[in-house]
Amino acid sequence: MSNSLSNDFGLINGQTYIIGRKGHICIDSPAVSKHHAAIIIKNDRIYLRDLNSTNGTYLVNNDSLVDFEEGYVTSNQPIVIGDVRCTICGLLALPRVKSALKNHPSNFEDATSLVIPTMPHNETSDPDIRPLKR
C-alpha distances in angstroms, 45 versus 16, 108, 118, 134? Predict the structure, then answer.
């Protein structure tokens, strides 16, 4: 997994990456907080932490949402950020995110190339990123 995280996604061990409307990985949805969650690479594993977001971070388990505050997740674990269902791998594998993470802007407020627009599920070509239907 170490090779996959560093080589495939450009993630650095010990580094924190912010997911939110304003962060390293931006999700353009009003249900997503500015700084919604953080991915922290610890010992070559993915540690996900909700940052006291308004609409929460959830794991998807058998089509049920499980409230999630923090812990280790796999890159293919289905999660929900606000109202967007995705996987870490799905978020990181988008070409523009992958490219920007390799350049890793030190000021994530300037990371405009990482914006992930949300759209109805039937309009997206990536099955790992879609708005949640509650």
Answer: 12, 22, 27, 30
